[in-house]
Amino acid sequence: MFTLKIHTVDFPQPLHTTFTSTTTSSTAAAHPNNNPKPVEQMGVAHLFRQLPSASHPAVTVASVIARTTVLFVVAVPNYLSPNDFLVFCGNHVPYFEEILFLKNDGMEDRYSVLIRLDSQLAADGFYCSYNGKRFKPPEVEVCHIYFAQSVEYTDSAEIASIPPPDYTELPSCPVCLERLDPDTSGIQSTLCDHSFHCSCVSKWTYLSCPVCRLCQQQDEKPACAVCGTFKNLWICLICGFVGCGRYEKGHASGHWSDKQHHFSLDLEKQQIWDYVGDRYVHRLNHSKVGGKSVIVNSRCSSVEECGTCGYDEEEGLDGALFSSKIEGILDEYNRLLASQLDTQRQHYESLLAEAKSRKETSTAKAVEKAIFSRTHDLQYKLEKYAEEKKAVADRNQELMKKQEFLRNKFKEIEEREKSRLKSKDERIIDLQEQIRDLKVYVEAQRMVTNMADSDGIRGGTILPVESNQSSGSGNSKRRTKSGRRRN
């Protein structure tokens, strides 16, 4: 059984794909949401496998308790886009409830996929259909699927790397970066204790280990890994790199300058050189006479002196001292190797910290630059809109002044027209009264002419009649004219 821990500080982002599943009517009716919404997240996945024990025997995929509806697809090649992966899944996509594409900055050519299906039957069918299947026929990468009992998200790398009780984390193959699981593929180990998939290491055409370059055929004559010379060779005690000495072309010291691996062994003299201290750090055991290496005879098993094996008490004491020295040298070498490995770990951790710091700095600079550019654009637009607002306000002020001027001018014209119309009306009224008076006069003349006693009227006198003060001024002329007619 497997459990999954994901170290991430990111939030799932919606992933827009152009995939549209084509299913039958019955499937579409059973699954109305037959197009799941995939999401993408940056993080590091840690896959843990349960260790077999007396209380927890080994469980295989054939067992019901080992299978769940959550499937974890590891090491999907990057040439397969999320849309291509959905096309690869085919008619199983309608059964997906959730699908998460997990990407890691450290492995740009691979990503993982976490899928949750709607039923155990659908999960079993997907596992049987695609586990061990090639993603593309011309390619060699195959699909590896695991049933995940639980999935845990955390923002701490330390917590994510701690396995649950009775679980251990599956290592990854250095070649393909997929998990090394003996249940899914064969595993081959090298002399330097590095493990690989059998299919991956079979493609390696060299005789050395793909990780540390240690030659796997020890019977061949060693040579410099750079120039190929066979003289004055030194081997790195940290990674197994073989290079020529400083009196040849100095590739061994160049390896120390590049990798900071301090200890190197002379293959001819079997002496260890420390590049930091610039001195030998090996321990040689010489005899007190002649300066040659001590040759220790095996202890005689006879109780009495046999005189044939050449063993005596002094030689036995020397042998015990030599054995204790060998043990002390071995312990000191182990301590030196452990300290060197710890130094290398600190060195690479500092490099990772520097790379992370540079990445954070570049990200912060990019964000700051983007914010500054965005702020500058917004400030420019704000100034532009302020200028437009000012121009509109000035134009509005001018229009208001012009409107006021036209309003005053209209009032003047209106008053002038009113006065003109009033004077015209008065003139019309006056003319009408004059016409009426003329009509009355003409009528009076006609009546006088027709009267029989015209001579008496001719000698008469016309007297004016005073107008009534209480009557309106509008009827004064009319009353005056009527008075004339009475007379």
In short:
The chain is an alpha+beta fold. The chain is 40% helix and 17% strand.
Give an account of the 3D structure.
- This is BRCA1-associated protein.
- InterPro entries: BRAP2/ETP1_RRM (IPR011422), RING-H2_BRAP2 (IPR047243), Znf_RING (IPR001841), Znf_RING/FYVE/PHD (IPR013083), Znf_UBP (IPR001607).
- Residues 452-487 are annotated as: Disordered.
- The protein has helices at 25-30, 82-89, 120-130, 157-161, 198-201, 251-259, 313-450, 454-458, 476-486, and strands at residues 2-7, 13-14, 39-42, 44-50, 70-77, 96-104, 107-117, 144-154, 167-169, 187-189, 195-197, 233-236, 242-244, 263-266, 272-274, 279-280.
- The protein is built from 9 helices and 16 strands.
- The strands form 3 sheets. Strands 2-3-6-7-5-8-1-4-9 form a 9-stranded mixed sheet. A 5-stranded antiparallel sheet has the order 13-12-14-15-16, with helices on one face. The chain has a two-stranded antiparallel sheet with strand order 10-11.
- Mean pLDDT is 76; it is low at 284-313 and 475-487.
- The protein has a domain at 2-185: Alpha-Beta Plaits, CATH 3.30.70.330.
- The longest helix has 138 residues, at 313-450.
- By secondary structure, the chain is α+β, with helices and mostly antiparallel strands.
- 15% of the residues are buried.
- Helix 7 (313-450) runs parallel beside helix 9.
